[in-house]
Write a structure and sequence with these properties.
Elements (H helix, E strand, L loop, with lengths): L2 E10 L6 E5 L12 H5 L3 E5 L11 H9 L6 E4 L2 H5 L3 H10 L3 E2 L3 E5 L2 E6 L9 H8 L5 E5 L2 H8 L6 E4 L8 E2 L2 E2 L1 E2 L3 E2 L6 E3 L4 E3 L18 E10 L3 E7 L1
Parallel strand pairs: 1-16, 2-3, 3-4, 4-5, 7-8, 8-9, 9-15
Antiparallel strand pairs: 1-17, 2-16, 6-7, 10-11, 12-13, 14-15
């Protein structure tokens, strides 16, 4: 599978020490052993939704991920639309809660001086706004996992949350002149498919894999692993693409 690595360096006076985080939304229960070297080189792994795939008959890779990866590196995991709509959601989420992964269901936790939060996908598309307000009221550097870019656009933008990582859009599936063709939740010619938005406060990943039943094949749009390099210092955000 073609996958690029994109490094984002984020500096803020609110970050107490250097951290290297892998952000890997939209794994969709694909094999992941090729990712382990990258994951093990990081301080933690962020899964902003869709580790499971509701279209697959067999989600053994998602269950195995929960068994294997948190034993190598801390994993923080938030709920996407595939977790929410999965036919075996109750059983699967029970396994996720019992695993060593930190399942952040509309809550946040402290990790090495920063706060990592996860806002859950909902069937209505409306997030837990009381959770978002509580998270925004905290003082440390706040990193939010929000699976849907359109949820960020409509409910998170403007809140005092330092940085948000999204997925879901799969890079727009087909890239034409740097623009995506289609994204669920945004329709044709979506604006929020990949890269940095909102003055450096929100990042959309192209996603680690396709879903089991992609509506449109990927064209000019490789899968992507995000590496977040957090550092103390004057507030900046820089991007570097690597193969």
């Amino acid at each position: 599978m073609q996958r690029k690595r994109t490094v984002h360096r984020i500096r803020s006076p609110k970050i107490p020490e250097k951290l290297r985080l892998a952000a890997a939304p939209d794994i969709h229960s694909a094999p992941f052993d090729d990712m382990l070297e990258d994951f093990s080189a990081c301080d933690a792994v962020l899964i902003p939704g869709d580790l499971v795939d509701r279209h697959r008959r067999d989600n053994r890779n998602a269950y195995r991920f929960l068994e294997v990866v948190p034993g190598i590196v801390p994993v923080f995991y938030s709920i996407g639309n595939h977790e929410r709509k999965f036919r075996d959601a109750e059983q699967y989420l029970a396994a996720a809660r019992k695993s060593k992964a930190e399942l952040l269901e509309d809550r946040y936790t402290e990790f090495r001086g920063i706060l990592i939060g996860g806002v859950s996908s909902t069937l209505s598309g409306i997030p837990d706004q009381a959770f978002l307000d509580r998270f925004a009221s905290e003082d440390p550097f706040k990193l939010l996992m929000c699976h849907h870019p359109e949820m960020y656009r409509d409910y998170v933008r403007g809140k005092d949350i330092d940085f948000t990582v999204c997925g879901h859009a799969h890079g727009g599936q087909v890239q034409l002149f740097g623009r995506g063709l289609y994204a669920p939740g945004q329709g044709l010619f979506p604006r929020l498919t990949h890269g940095i938005h909102d003055g450096g406060k929100m990042l959309v990943s192209r996603g680690m894999t396709n879903a089991a039943k992609p509506r449109i094949p990927r064209i000019n749009n490789p899968c992507e692993l995000i590496i977040l390099e957090l550092e103390p210092g004057t507030e900046t955000n820089e991007e570097e693409e690597r193969t």
